Amino acid sequence: MKRGIILLTFFLGGAFSFAHVAFAGFGITPPYVHNNTLRPGSEYTQEIIIVRSDPVEDLDTEVTLNLPGIEQWFSIDRGIKFVLPKGESQVKMHVIVRVPDDAKLGAYNGNIRIRTTSQNAPTTGVSLALGAQIDVHIKVVEEIFDFEVRRVELYEAEEGYKQWWLDFPGKVNFAMHIENTGNIPAAPPLVHIDIYDTAGVKLLESSDHTNKVEQILPFATKKVYANFPTWLPPGGYRVKYKIVKGEDAVAQEGELSLSILPRGTIPNYESYGFAGLRTGDKLSIILPGVILLLLVLVFFFGKKRRQRRPPRTHHHEHREDDPPPQTRRTSENRGGVVDLSRRR
């Protein structure tokens, strides 16, 4: 009988303890820090969300790092001790990995433990502590250039216009949501579009992007733009696009619809300037300027050269082929008598 009472007490106590833990509903997501493309000198941040189902009180939280050989690489944005505030069911924590420049290539593993305790826990006896573990698996490798295109958008454009003899095109804005999955800054080296009629049969224009696509930092996702000129009139068109990753690799290709509207239709629309002109129009501006500049330089340096030339002097210089100067003989005339005895 006594044995049965002890077993019943133990069972009820365990049941109540389990109910308390389940009610607390403590957990983390994701429960890991994984990255296989880190390189020496790179930085990576993993967001961890701490979840509570009943945030009825403040919880003291302590983070313990168990990362042999790489503990100095890791830091927590909230510090190793912080409070989970009452009333917040989700609290974000960021694990930051900074790989030293002299880090050796290879795989590194470990874990990060999170332990919480109630601020109202009794000073004596047993208090309930909730915790979770974050598994850490990282690799330090050589440089990797890679990215993934998550989504693309093609905006409406306006028709081009003429000013003087110049034919300015409309600007087609192509947006790309790109995730850098490598470990160095990256951007598409080439984005190409072909514009067809609405049926997608007749090719009307073909163009590469004219702007410099903004680079995305490693492990980040960003919306970047590629711009294309068009001289097509208002109407609907079909666009086939191709986003190039490397010499023989295409990140993504597909088809989208494009609407070109009359000029002045789209508020705050930015059309092309000089960069969108055809090569012939660009040369018609550049060549006269270059020729004028050359003429100015020739005139300037010619004038400077004339100013530096020394003036000519008008004195007779002795030449080797000139006859020697003749010496004039004089006879000493003494008393009007000339001594002829010395002559031969």
Describe the protein's architecture and organization:
- The chain crosses the membrane at residues 283-302.
- Residues 308-317 have a biased composition (Basic residues).
- With 344 residues, the chain is of the alpha+beta class.
- The chain has 2 domains: 22-140, Immunoglobulin-like, CATH 2.60.40; 147-278, Immunoglobulin-like (Sandwich).
- Helices cover 15% and strands 41% of the residues.
- The chain has 2 helices and 19 strands.
- It has helices at residues 2-24, 279-308; strands at residues 26-29, 32-38, 43-52, 59-66, 74-76, 81-84, 90-98, 106-118, 129-140, 147-154, 157-158, 161-163, 166-168, 170-180, 190-196, 203-208, 221-230, 235-244, 250-261.
- Strands 2-9-8-4-6 form a 5-stranded mixed beta sheet, with no helix packed on it. Strands 11-19-18-15-16 form a 5-stranded mixed beta sheet, with no helix packed on it. Strands 1-3-7-5 form a 4-stranded antiparallel beta sheet.
- A hairpin with a 6-residue loop joins β15 and β16.
- The longest helix is centred in the last third of the chain and has 30 residues, at 279-308.
- The protein is elongated, with a radius of gyration of 44 Å.
- Residues 1-23 and 330-335 have low confidence and may be disordered.
In short, what is this structure?
Helices cover 15% and strands 41% of the residues.
Helicity level, as a percent range? Answer: 10-25%
| CATH domain topology of the largest domain | Immunoglobulin-like
CATH C-level name of the largest domain: Mainly Beta
Query: Distance N terminus to C terminus?
Result: 179 Å
